[in-house]
Design a protein that fits this description.
The complex is a heterodimer of chains A (378) and B (265). Chain A is of the alpha/beta class and 378 residues long. Chain A has three domains: 77 residues, no CATH class; 125 residues, Leucine-rich repeat, LRR (right-handed beta-alpha superhelix), CATH 3.80.10; 136 residues, Leucine-rich repeat, LRR (right-handed beta-alpha superhelix) (Alpha-Beta Horseshoe), CATH 3.80.10. In chain A, 41% of the residues lie in helices and 9% in strands. In chain A, strands 1-2-3-4-5-6-7-8-9-10-11 form an eleven-stranded parallel β-sheet, with no helix packed on it. Chain B has 13 helices and three strands, in the order H-H-H-H-H-E-E-H-H-E-H-H-H-H-H-H. In chain B, a hairpin with a 5-residue loop joins strand 1 and strand 2. Classes of the chains: A alpha/beta (378), B mainly alpha (265). At the A-B interface, helix 1, helix 2, helix 3, helix 4 and helix 5 of A face helix 3, helix 10, helix 11, helix 12 and helix 13 of B. Chain A: This is F-box/LRR-repeat protein 15-like leucin rich repeat domain-containing protein. Chain A: One of its GO terms (cellular component) is cytoplasm.
Chain lengths: 378, 265
């Protein structure tokens, strides 16, 4: 595949040179010019635009250095310069500042600093001071695992991002309700919020989110262990557009809060892993979420056949279901699930459900012919 | 000698045209015959003309790589050349008839390329080419192949490959493994020069699957490669001055992987 046009041009020239050396050389050069200045840039612009995520900004920057004509062509394609990904890179804070100071990143829409562990408040404050205008179009900011960032850094960076729609800062114990206060004040359009593992967020923070983001579509509260029923209820009463709700490893909620999940008519994804207080009664309320496609009930130890059967009857679009570790369910609930969801379910985990006797792959496939995955938890 | 070669070319064209007319009347798919006719014309040119003349007479899109020309049957004499052409057309007619026999007649769309070759393709293939589909929708054109839709930016060779891709892609789609294997095989059969033409044609006709497949292939080839590699790969000369390049590298040092020593970097 690496036989490029140059080969044709060279052979072309050799054949013609004897007769008209001067004229031929000029023709050859013009062909080569067209190839270098028009064709290659056009092809690479198509490649980069067709697959914007397959080439990192490192690759794109390398392409700019190939030739001035390629540089010009790629710079004209604004969508190529709307994403910066420094995931797991060191020195990411300084790199980000250097990148944002370049004109081509003046309309950046996505920044990913996930696990760029050296990023700290000072970097974010510097960005606010030096690159304020470059972030005015930012829609997605991922600060997952950046554990040196605190509420101060969040205040600085969010003050530059009025258009932010997606904000993620999981596994950061330095973030508190004050950080959420800055987010809701500066970013009015958030629809996707991930504060998983931010253990210092309390009901007050949940209330802030509920009051300011009624159109929130995705919320991850995994391991926000200070939250109580009151915090969750305020969210469920006000964020009625939620499609994804992750309550993984939050064992302190009770049925009083779980029942209110039925208010989320658009809910598609619900993770209740470790909800040890969840009862069949609350689960039958949740079964009113008709659009539910994914439900994780791993280690919901109080649940029995009754609760799962109500889900089977209500949530007929279910594609993913985990009952891992629930000892109170039997073959009866699987038969009921098979009646209503057999043509949809592709993932079903019944490992550790000692009450279910038909647990072999063959037996499960008889009930659910479209099953592809039999184990969610390893 | 020049006269002879000229007349043999004309004869070749006549044979091809007759074959095409026959094919149309018996509702045989044009694609295979066009390809055969083009291949024959190429091979007879190679035989009867001086190499330099042959090279000059080819358009950019018609140049055949060394590897490809090995696969084109070369006739020893003009007589054999005629026989070969007729035999080939007969073979392709039989093959086409065999595939269409007993099958339900499907609506066809006529497409005319910039080099004047007309293709009759199934309606579902035309649908894959969103530009063609848009033309049909806009003009409310009858898809009975009465009017050939002009494709001003696509040569016959590229269109033939695109049609082949659509058909093979459909066959391979039954399993993800087959599809991946087919796409790799399809891309491997092209050199960069052909791939360039095909990408531009796929973009013009908005054939998304093909465009993505070829883009993936090129992206894979240049991913995480040095600037020098990319220049060499595309046969591009470096027009930057030493100073410009040095300044550019300095400004964009943050983007390159060797910014500082770190195993994760």
């Amino acid at each position: 595949m690496r036989k490029h046009l140059k080969r044709y041009l060279v052979s072309d020239r050799k054949q013609k040179q004897k007769q008209e050396p001067e004229l031929t050389r000029m023709e050859g050069e013009s062909k080569e010019d067209v190839w270098c200045r028009e064709t290659v840039p056009k092809v690479l612009k198509l490649v980069c635009s067709t697959l914007p995520l397959s080439l990192s900004h490192t690759n794109l920057v390398s392409l700019l250095l190939v030739s001035p004509s390629l540089h010009r062509t790629l710079l004209c394609s604004q969508p190529l310069w709307q994403s910066l990904n420094f995931r797991e890179l060191n020195n990411a804070g300084n790199r980000l500042i250097a990148a944002l100071s370049l004109p081509r990143y003046c309309n950046v829409k996505q920044i990913n600093l996930e696990f760029a562990r050296d990023v700290e408040d000072a970097h974010l404050i510097l960005i606010m001071d030096k690159c304020f205008n470059s972030l005015q179009s930012l829609e997605s900011l991922n600060l997952n695992g950046c554990q040196k960032i605190s509420d101060t850094g969040i205040e600085a960076i969010t003050s530059c991002c009025p258009q932010l729609k997606s904000f993620s800062i999981y596994w950061n114990v330095r973030v508190t309700d004050r950080g959420l206060q800055h987010i809701v004040k500066n970013c009015k359009h958030i629809i996707d919020l991930n504060i998983s593992g931010c253990k210092n967020i309390s009901d007050q923070g949940a209330q802030l989110v509920a009051d300011n983001y009624p159109e929130l579509e995705s919320l991850n509260l995994t391991r926000c262990i200070k939250l109580t029923d009151d915090g969750l209820k305020s969210l469920l009463h006000k964020c009625l557009f939620l499609q994804s709700l992750n309550l993984y490893a939050l064992s302190s909620f009770t049925d009083e809060a779980y029942r209110k999940i039925c208010l989320l008519a658009r809910l598609k994804f619900l993770d209740l892993c470790g909800a040890q207080n969840l009862s069949d009664e609350a689960l039958s309320c949740i079964s009113k979420c008709k659009n539910l496609e994914s439900l994780n009930l791993t280690w919901c130890v109080r649940v029995t056949d009754e609760g799962v059967i109500s889900i089977a009857k209500g949530c007929t679009s279910l594609e993913f279901l985990s009952l891992f570790g629930i000892v109170g369910v039997t073959d009866k609930c699987l038969e009921e699930l098979s009646k209503s969801c057999s043509n949809k379910i592709t993932t079903l985990d019944v490992n550790g459900c000692i009450g279910i006797k038909k647990r072999s792959r063959e037996e499960l496939l008889q009930l659910f012919p479209y099953l592809k995955c039999f184990k969610v938890h390893s | 000698m020049a006269k002879e070669s000229g007349s043999s070319k004309i004869e070749m064209l006549e044979i091809s045209n007759e074959a095409m007319a026959e094919a149309q009347s018996s509702k045989i798919e044009m694609l295979e015959i066009n390809n055969e006719a083009m291949a024959e014309a190429q091979s007879s040119k190679t035989v009867t003309m001086k190499p330099a003349e042959a090279e000059e007479s080819k358009t950019e899109t018609q140049k055949i790589t060394d590897e490809e020309s090995k696969n084109v049957p070369i006739a020893a004499t003009e007589e054999e050349s005629k026989k070969l052409s007729i035999t080939k057309v007969e073979e392709s007619k039989n093959a086409a008839t065999a595939t269409t026999e007993g099958e339900k007649e499907e609506a066809k769309v006529s497409l005319k390329t910039l080099d004047g070759v007309t293709f009759e393709v199934e309606a579902w293939i035309a649908k894959e080419m969103e530009t063609v589909q848009a033309y049909i929708d806009d003009t409310s054109a009858d898809t009975s192949a009465a009017i050939a839709i002009p494709l001003h930016n696509v040569a016959g060779r590229e269109l033939a490959r695109m049609v082949e891709y659509c058909k093979e892609h459909r066959r391979a789609s039954v399993s993800a493994g087959n599809l991946k294997e087919f796409e790799e095989r399809f891309a491997a059969a092209l050199n960069l020069y052909e791939m360039k033409d095909l990408i531009i044609a796929a973009n013009y006709l908005n054939t998304k699957k093909l465009l993505e497949s070829l883009s993936r292939c090129i992206a894979k080839a240049i991913k995480n490669k040095s600037v020098e590699f990319v220049r060499d790969y595309f046969g591009v000369t470096n027009d930057y001055t030493t100073e410009e390049e040095a300044q550019y590298r300095e400004t964009n040092a943050w983007a390159f992987r060797n910014v500082d020593e770190d195993s994760r970097n």
